[in-house]
Amino acid sequence: MHHSKTLYLTLPSCFRQVLAYFEVNCVTACCGLDAYDFDPIYASHALAANGSAFVESARDELASLIVQIRGLPEDWGVQSGEMNAVWSKNEALAFFEMIERDIRQGLEIGAVAPEDSYPRNDPLQRFKR
Question: Is there a domain that residue 10 lies in?
Answer without folding.
Answer: no
